[in-house]
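Sanity check

After download, print the first record. It should look like this:
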Amino acid sequence: MAKKNQAPMFVRVANVLTTTLLRAGIKLKGTGSYPMYLLTVRGRKSGQPRTVPIAIIEQNGKSYVGSVYGIVDWVRNLRAAREAILTRGRRAETINVRELPPKEAALVLREDVKGGNPFAHYYGVAADSSLEEFERAVLTHPLFELERK
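Expected structure tokens:
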């Protein structure tokens, strides 16, 4: 059986606490001072809503979300649904998402890593990595552009 991508146990435990705080209306900042949101997306098999805390990357007036831990369930669900609900405090909005093609995603990721993203080692790249290395990284760590409705 192929190894399934999955966040480490400490992250999954921390996600429970983070989700609880965000649902209580406490505004949190992720690493790199990115705002934290709850992302709710319909499960691709069950159809039931699935919620995970995420940090939104903001660059040049656009918003993105990336998967540090690879192609995990929320990524698969988001690919299938192509829409989600973002919640922060009491404010919730439905968004459309567009998975970025590798060349475009590589540029966003490179700027994010150069900006000091502490999770860069999970992507297998550094600020001085070549654009080709970033393109390889986004094949297994996809990025999505968030398009507000």
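If your output differs, re-run the checksum step. Summary of this record's structure: The helical segments are 9-23, 73-81, 102-114, 120-123, 131-140.
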